[in-house]
Each structure stands twice: as C-alpha cells, then as structure tokens.
C-alpha cells in the first residue's frame, strides 16, 4: 500500500506481468480489506483541504516531473499494459497536459453572489471539496486514467483513495510518488492494490468515502453504484461508439479516422471506434480503404518504436475478441483481413456486412477490430447507432452540416463529432455518456465541480 507518502512493507504480494512476454514487471502488495479500512480511516482523520493556490502548485509540479521522466514512465506503461511505446509516449504528455489544465482550473473554482428577491439579504455560493474520493481505474491508459480522476480531486481540495487495476498498478504507484514529491501532503493520498473483488466493494461502500469515481464495465459499475448508495457517483461505463460515414464523405478522412479509432491501443479504449456505419454507395470504397489501413499496421513487440498494434491486456481478453469475430462470421459477416490470435495478440481485423445485432457490435469489444455495418440511409444509420444499451460518443463524416445537425440531434450519446471520430477528446470539454454508458461528466473543469459541493451563505444586505 502507498500510504503516508511511501510504499509500505507487504508480506502478501501479487506479480504484475508483461502481456507481451509474460515476464514479471514487478510486484505490488495484496492489501487486505482490514488494511484498507485502517488506511481510509487514518486518511479521513488527517485530511485538511489545501488552499487553491497550493493545489495548483502541486498539480503544476507533478506535470513538470512527468515531463522530466516521460521516457521511463512510457516504458513502464508499455511493460505492464502492452500498449505500444509510440502511444505511451503520447500518454505521458497527455497526462502532463491534463495536470496543467487541472492546476489552472483549481484557481478558477469560484461561486457567485445572488441578491435574494423579496428579502434584504445577499446569498453567496462557495465551492467546497466533497471530502474523500475513492477513484477506481481500469487497465487501459494506466497513467492518464489515473490522472483524470486524481487531478480534479486534488484541484477540488479532496483527499483520494486510489485503487488502480490489478493488471496495471505500477504506473499508478509511480504517479503517487510524483504527486508527493510535487508537494501533495502525504496524508491526502492512499493507493491500495488488493484483490478487486474484495477491495473494490469495501472501498466503494466505506463510511468514510464521500464520493466514488469509477471507470469500467457496466456490470461492475452497477455493483459499485449499489454498494455506494447515498454517495456522490461519477461513472464512466464504456461504449460501442459508432463512426457514421455518409455518401458525400471525404473518403480519405473517413478511412484515416476509422483505422485510427479502431486500431489504436489495440482497440482497448472506451471511446474508440467499435462500429463503422457506412451509408449507401460509399461502403465498397470505405471497406477497401480499411483493409489497406489494416495491412499497413505493424503488429508485435510494444517496446519496438515501429510497432503499431501490441497485445491485448491478457490472453483471455484476446480469446473473447476472437470468439466474437467468429460468431459474427457465422452470422454472415465477411472477415476480409486479420483477426488471427496468438496468445494475447490479435491482428487488426476488418469485417464487412456485419449484422447490427452481432455481439461483436452490440457489446463493447476491446480489440483491434473494424466492423462495417452497411445501411441504406441516414434514418437507418441513426436507428442502428441508437440500437444498443450504450451511448458514449459518436463521429459523423459528411460535408453536409445541415444533415449532420439532424443526426447529432437524433443520436442518444454524450458527444457527437463532425468530421472527427468518437475518439476525439480534450481536457477542456465534458466527457461522459447516457444510457448504460455512465453517470456524470469527466473533463477537468466538469470533474472538479462533480467533486465539489456548493455551500450557500446568506447575510443581511441593504438592497
């Protein structure tokens, strides 16, 4: 456990293994529920909110340290997650940028004054930290997924108990050390690395936790919500995001967006493209372009800078993707390229004529797969897009802004991007979904407000 500013000795440990080689990357404590409980109670008793300028200084200092150590951090991320080094180098910069934005937002968190009609009083609203935040993070993007939860909590003035994925905990621990080195009081942060099925529910339901922010599956998210009943919740539960390509689309742009969104991070991204919906006659050329894009992807060792697609997080994850591809083919989809599995590696796959009700595209498939669903018109594209339990993000490729506006209004998602994929993101805009894709909004200024409470103070005031 990372507690009181340092890793504590542990007799019971878990080994973290490289998904590509199977070799040990390191080991972490297998914390018990009792140890976690003690740490949370101690954190709660010791925590006192910092001034906003001090919060901003910590976050800015952490961004500087990440940039100084970006090479070592990128290599660590690749080793424990299997994500290609070319992508993890970008992840470290993305994390540093998020910290800088959070630092700025920490000093912009201001309330308002409200003259109260009918009364000689003035109301003042004040943002206060919600308290102790439990942050439960997934394996993909193990640095940035942690930063987008911990940074706004620090910016809001909260204390944090972080439980990273058991598959990728080492990066989270490295980041915790960076935060303390940057000036975060040691009593403001605990990182626990116990068994998820035991520690997760106990942490989410702990009486000294005021808010839970979680990214993961719908099933686990619903369990988190159940055990955390009565607490504030921020849930990001994934998606099967569509890229809708209209007949007038710029074909080269559509192919680039589809290939990038489907194959980056080996397809292990909640906002990655999970469905390519081709409207009308553009489908043939779009599919041909996607096959060529898949052929150009170099597959293999994630630590090789030339590699584009590395392994999935585990062989079990790859077996699931392989099975869903096979089921889609059995339902008359055409596998045009890729889809071969070797241990945890899946070669980039392109499928055409995928039925809209195939599990491959109805569920969130975490793998390097570009499934093309052909539809006759815009109305059918909207129907197919809205036809699953998810509603995270979407992209539309067209030159017709009026038609885009109609599509954007009809889609039941958290964000729609014109001539960009669902994978577009920025720390300055809200991120989150509707339906089973989650509750609340991330995006740094939005997360900071989610992690705050508004106190209203009224006082006599001659009006």
TrEMBL record:
Does the keyword Manganese feature in the UniProt annotation? no
Record-annotated membrane-spanning stretches: none
SUPFAM superfamilies from the entry?
ALDH-like (SSF53720)
Task: Tell me which domain of life the UniProt entry assigns to the organism this sequence originates from.
Answer: Bacteria
**Keyword flag Oxidoreductase:** yes
Keyword entries, A-Z: Oxidoreductase
The entry's active site is 236
Q: Where is this region: Disordered?
A: 1-29
Q: Which residues form the Aldehyde dehydrogenase domain?
A: 12-457
Q: Could you state a single Gene Ontology molecular function term?
A: lactaldehyde dehydrogenase (NAD+) activity
Entry similarity comment:
Belongs to the aldehyde dehydrogenase family.
- The name of this protein is Phosphonoacetaldehyde dehydrogenase
Q: Which organism is it from?
A: Nocardia ninae NBRC 108245
């Amino acid at each position: 456990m990372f507690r009181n500013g340092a890793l504590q000795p542990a007799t019971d440990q878990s080994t973290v293994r490289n998904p590509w080689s199977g070799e040990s990357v390191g080991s972490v404590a297998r914390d018990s529920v009792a140890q976690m409980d003690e740490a949370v109670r101690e954190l709660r008793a010791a925590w006192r909110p910092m001034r906003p300028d001090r919060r901003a200084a910590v976050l800015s200092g952490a961004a500087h340290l990440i940039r100084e150590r970006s090479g070592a951090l990128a290599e660590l991320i690749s080793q424990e997650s299997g994500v290609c080094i070319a992508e993890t180098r970008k992840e470290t910069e993305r994390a540093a940028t998020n910290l800088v934005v959070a630092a700025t937002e920490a000093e912009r968190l201001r309330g308002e004054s409200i003259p109260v009609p009918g009364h000689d009083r003035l109301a003042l609203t004040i943002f206060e930290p919600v308290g102790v935040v439990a942050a439960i993070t997934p394996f993909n993007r193990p640095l940035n997924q942690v930063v987008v939860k911990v940074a706004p909590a620090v910016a809001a003035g909260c204390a944090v108990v972080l439980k990273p994925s058991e598959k990728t905990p080492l990066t989270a621990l490295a980041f915790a050390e960076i935060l303390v080195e940057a000036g975060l009081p040691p009593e403001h942060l605990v990182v626990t690395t116990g068994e998820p099925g035991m520690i997760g529910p106990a942490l989410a339901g702990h009486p000294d936790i005021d808010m839970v922010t979680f990214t993961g599956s719908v099933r686990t998210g619903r369990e988190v919500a159940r055990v955390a009943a009565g607490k504030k919740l921020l849930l990001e539960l994934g998606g099967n995001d569509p890229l809708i390509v209209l007949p007038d689309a710029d074909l080269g742009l559509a192919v680039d967006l589809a290939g990038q969104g489907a194959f980056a991070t080996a397809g292990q991204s909640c906002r990655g493209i999970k469905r390519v919906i081709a409207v009308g006659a553009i489908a043939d050329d779009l599919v041909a372009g996607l096959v060529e894009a898949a052929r150009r992807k170099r597959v293999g060792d994630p630590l090789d800078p030339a590699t584009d697609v590395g392994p999935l997080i585990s062989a079990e994850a790859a077996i699931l993707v392989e099975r869903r591809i096979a089921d889609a083919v059995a339902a008359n989809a055409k596998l045009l390229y890729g889809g071969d599995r070797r241990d945890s590696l899946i070669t980039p796959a392109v499928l055409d004529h995928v039925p809209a009700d195939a599990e491959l595209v109805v569920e969130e498939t975490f793998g390097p797969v570009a499934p093309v669903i052909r539809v006759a018109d815009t109305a059918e594209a909207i129907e197919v897009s809205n036809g699953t339990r998810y509603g995270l993000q979407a992209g539309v490729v067209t030159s017709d802004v009026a038609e885009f506006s109609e599509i954007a209004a009809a889609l039941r998602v958290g964000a729609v991007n014109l001539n960009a994929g669902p994978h577009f993101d920025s720390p300055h805009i809200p991120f989150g979904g509707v339906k089973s894709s989650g509750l609340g909004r991330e995006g740094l200024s939005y997360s900071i407000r989610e992690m705050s409470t508004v106190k209203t103070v009224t006082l006599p005031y001659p009006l």
